[in-house]
Amino acid sequence: MTQGNTQDPSHDARVPAQPGSVESMGTRHGMFGVSGSGDTSGYGGLVKQTIFPGASQRPYGGWYDEVADALEARLKSTGLMAAVEKVVIDHGEITFHVRRDDLPFVAQMFRDDEGLRFELCSGVSGVHYPGDTGRELHAVYHLLSMTYNRRVRLEVSVPDADPHIPSIVSIYPTNDWHERETYDMFGIVFDGHPALTRILMPDDWPGFPQRKDYPLGGIPVEYKGGTIPPPDQRRSYS
What we know:
Elements: E1 25-28, E2 46-49, H1 63-78, E3 84-90, E4 93-98, H2 103-112, E5 120-128, E6 137-145, E7 150-158, E8 164-166, H3 175-186, E9 189-191, E10 221-223, E11 226-228
Parallel strand pairs: 4-7, 8-9
Antiparallel strand pairs: 1-2, 3-4, 5-6, 6-7, 10-11
């Protein structure tokens, strides 16, 4: 597993993300053009933002090392040491970046290994980084160990041109609807999912609404005595 920077997991202070492999990206920000609020709804246009902390280095601190040791032992025993590309500790949270083809094997290790025992996956989140060339689409799985009261994340990155990730519904069944929603909003195709269809948008809806390059569009919303225009027709105050 690749190593780099470190942060003590007992330290809860929110610190800025360290620059990593991608220097900047376009992200929408600002409700009605307001800046500095942290709002990423998209009404204010695109701005540049530094992203991606680098890989972390042993010792990670606290139980993070216990989890990494247990996972590494299993990976060595199965010859899959390359399955985990890097480990990142940032903002007091640990993320294991996993090669997509190895995701089902790593997820099953996290669930079944006695030293890990992450029995629950609370879902998968999609993220779109247009500036992360060749890795524009990210799927992040959120795992919980009820045995040890620990939380970790598994992250898989794939290109826009080949947005396929193996489904892990057979390992964590709670991902059934979550993988469908991530497919619906980001266009990530979860191979092997039992029924990968749209869950929020109509079946014939064009595009994937939560990608950062998706046009805002929208329709006017009418209230008694007033009308709110769609986002791309509102005045920008930035």
